[in-house]
C-alpha cells in the first residue's frame, strides 16, 4: 500500500486491509517504473534534491477541492514542482536519446494526479525518475514526500515528446502505394510517439511500397515499408567483408532469399558457407 495516501471516506468502510492494494491500483498509482526499459544513470534516480524544497503551502494546490466531480476533476501541480519534474524528465530524455547531428526539441507534457487522492501535508516533495523507467513517450515520474509527518510516494503520468523533421504523408495513402515525391513532405514529427524509427531522407523512401496505409500528415516509419528482396536463392551475389579501415569483396552464390536487413547464407567460390546481412541489390555484408 502507498504510504500517506488514503481513499475517499465513502469508500474506506467497505475496503478491508486486504483490498487496499487493488483499490489503489485502480486509481492508477504505480510506484514502480516500466519493467524491461533501459536503466538510467544513478544521478537521475538518486533522491538528493537539486533545487529549493517544495513547501507545504505549495502542496495544498495538489489536492482537488472536495466538491470536485471525480469524473472530470484532476489535480494540478504547483508551478515550482511542475518545472522541476519537466527539467528532470528533459535531462533524462537527452541522455537516453544520445548524440545527434541535429539535437531534437524535447517537450514534456505533465499529466494529472488522481483527484480522489488525499495526500498528507509535506514540507519537501522530491520528483524522481523510477529505476528502470525509459523517459520517452508515455511514461511516469515519481513524487516522494521526503520531509513530512507522513511519508508518501505516488506516480505522475507524463508524456515526453521528441520533435524533429521527418517525412510525412502529404495525403492519405493506401497500403501497396509505391512512394513518389508527390506522396511525401517534410514536417516536425514526435519521434518518441512510436518505437519504430521515422524516415527523414527521401532517398530512403522513394520507390518503396507501403506495407500499411498512412493518414494525411502521418509520419513515415521504417516498418511502414515493405521489406525489399535484394536477391533470390541461387543468385550470384557480391560478398563484402568490412573491417576497421578496410573492405574485401568477392563473389558467392546465395543459399536462400536475401531480405533487406536480414541474415543471409552464401556459398563462397571456395565452397565455404558464410552468413551476412542482405544490405543491397545482390550484396551481402560481413562484419569482421
Secondary-structure map:
Elements: E1 5-6, H1 20-26, H2 56-59, H3 79-97, E2 105-110, E3 118-119, E4 124-128, E5 137-147, E6 153-169, E7 184-190, E8 229-231, E9 236-243, E10 246-254, E11 258-259, E12 263-268, E13 273-280, E14 283-287
Parallel strand pairs: 9-14
Antiparallel strand pairs: 1-3, 2-6, 4-5, 5-6, 6-7, 8-11, 9-10, 10-12, 12-13, 13-14
H/E element order? EHHHEEEEEEEEEEEEE
Largest sheet: 5 strands, antiparallel
**Strand percentage, roughly?**
25-35%
Measured as a percent range, the helix fraction is 10-25%
The counted number of beta strands is: 14
**Total helical segments:** 3
Structural shape: elongated
Secondary structure class reads mainly beta
Low-confidence region ranges: 1-74
Mean pLDDT: 77
CA gyration radius, whole angstroms: 26 Å
| N-C termini distance | 53 Å
Q: Keywords for this structure?
A:
288 residues, mainly beta, five-stranded antiparallel β-sheet, five-stranded mixed β-barrel, 3 helices, 14 strands, 10% helix, elongated, disordered N terminus
What does this structure look like?
The protein has 288 residues and is mainly β. Helices cover 10% and strands 32% of the residues. Strands 2, 4, 5, 6 and 7 form a 5-stranded antiparallel β-sheet that branches. It has a 5-stranded mixed barrel with strand order 9-10-12-13-14. The chain has a two-stranded antiparallel sheet with strand order 1-3.
